[in-house]
Prior knowledge:
The chain has 181 residues and is mostly helical.
Amino acid sequence: MNHEEALNLIKSKVKNVNLIKHMLATEAVMRALAKDLGEDEDLWGMAGLLHDVDYDQTTDDPSKHGLLGAEWLDELGVDRRIIQAVRSHPGHIPPQSKMDWALSAVDPLTGLIVASALMHPSRRLKGMDEGFVLKRFKEKRFAAGANREQIKHCKRFGLSLDQFVDIALGAMKEIADEIGL
C-alpha cells in the first residue's frame, strides 16, 4: 500500500477531520523517530498513518480498536509489521517490536502536544519548546487522556522523555500548517 492508497482508505473510513490530523501527526513523528533510530521511515510512517483507521467504527466498543483495523489491513495485504503495530497500539496486545513500542508511545504524545499548543499563548506549535510540553506532561489533569505511562515507553526504544518530546515536537512543527497548528 502506498501513501495515496492509505490516505484514500483513511478518508473512506474516518470522518472526523481532527482524527485525520492526529493520524498525520502520528505519521510525521513515527517517520522522524525511524530516521533518528536508523529504522525504515516509510514502514514506521505508514504504521503511524494507519493506526486509527478503525477508530470511528470502534468507538462504541474500544476493545475492538486496533483489531478491526488490523483485519482490514490484512485483507489489503499490508505489511505484517504494520498490522502488528496497529493491533498492539491500543494496549490490548503487548507490543513486540521497536516499532510497536514507538507507536504505543507516539499515539498519546501527539495528543499531549496538540493540547499543549492549544494552551500556549501563541496557540501554535511554532512558538512552543520541549520544556513547555514537559511541564504539561507533569500536570496529571492536563490532557488526562494522554496516557503518560504509554508515553514513557520511549525508554523501550532507547530515548529519554526529553529526547522523545524534542523529536516529536520537531516533526509536528514540520507539518504544522497541514494539521492546523
